[in-house]
Amino acid sequence: MTSGPDGERTTTAGFSEPARTREENLGERLLGSLLDRAHLIPPRLVGPLVAQELTASGARDVAIWLQDYDQRMLRPVPGRGLAGESLAIDDSLPGEAFVTDDRVEEPLPDGSVRLYLPMLDGSDRVGVLGLTLPALDDVDRRIAQRAAGLVADLVVTKSMYTDTFAQIRTNQPMTVAAQLQWQTLPPLAMTTPDIDLAGAVEPAYEVGGDGFDYALDEHVLHLAVLDAMGHGLEAASMATVVTAAYRHGRRVGRSLTELYAEMDEVVARAFPGRFATAQFARLDSETGELSWVNAGHPPALWLRDRKVVGELLGRPTRPVGFGGATPRVHRVQLEPGDLLLFFTDGVVEERIGHGEQFGEARLREALEKTAAEQRSAAETVRRLSHALVDARRGRTSDDASLLLVQWKGPPRDDELARDVPESRPTGDGGLRS
Fold this sequence. Notes:
Layout: E1 2-3, E2 9-10, H1 26-38, H2 46-56, E3 60-67, E4 73-76, E5 87-88, H3 93-100, E6 104-107, E7 113-121, E8 124-133, H4 138-159, H5 164-169, H6 176-184, E9 189-191, E10 195-202, E11 210-217, E12 220-228, H7 232-251, H8 256-270, E13 276-284, E14 289-295, E15 301-304, E16 307-311, E17 330-333, E18 339-343, H9 346-349, E19 351-352, E20 356-357, H10 359-371, H11 377-391, E21 400-407
Helix pairs in contact: 1-2, 1-4, 6-7, 7-8, 10-11
């Protein structure tokens, strides 16, 4: 044990860093206490625990908002010590933090600062943390952002064995079919240094039959979009089975043609006389090569420089459940920055005035307009989904699903380098310890 330049006790034993004190600082005490106490705390007390710890560290007016299922509202977590009310995402400062995935600061008349911080589980949006501090510097910003990340992780972890947070997120009655479909969906967004991905399903509270799935293994992104025949609970049940068959084949290393055969057999056996359209693909994040099979599904749109440059064309095979010849695997070479929009037929076949279909031309126009704003995939899909619903004048007689994927480029040689931009959550202002 030695003394540092200011008389602080330092050591080189155990975890060490030059001139680092062995005493806890404020950030370590706050985040450590939150983490230590949260392990066994019941889900209903997560919010009050966060409020208690932040208040003890000098904050006030702590609020936790979670996004509702159709991503239009932020709904407050209730509990002792918590503030906040329901707010529209597109018309509020907390909503701005949610939309931009970045910190928002609001100076108050008394000289204090109100902070709104995105709560990100990895890159998936969970909600927003709000708190007020009497003063603000870069250390405060860093601690607050890390606290928001920890709160997001607590909400997601506790959600695995509670309905508390799902009930908060539910802004209107949800059908049984939609409940089943939401349980099958992966997180709505995923971002890595190489790939940006996000999806959406409409109508969020009544969907049944549409869905998507993805997984990132090594340098391969697996993805699928599907549309089960019919509506309601029967379609949702079929979609769940199709997704399970897809995941099973994917996890045991089936090729794309083998995946089609397995999914086709499962549907034919479990739902005789019925079918599901599907499109499943693999993207090599090192090379940008995309390979896919189209089982009776609308072709994906291909964007470059925020403009639609084509579709993923190629001879489709029959929908799964109908059986057919060995499907053809198609391949294209993407360029860094290219985007692909996979969608179900409900997006373009909805009828608007005088029986006219919404159509692919309107979809392309809405996609290019939204993509031109150069937002993240998550925000692009959220805005596009709402723009399509609004353009259809709220008509959603059929499910409509979107999955947007961007290949940003090959990975760096050293993927663990500390200066990889996406290695830290957005909203930390580029601050470093």
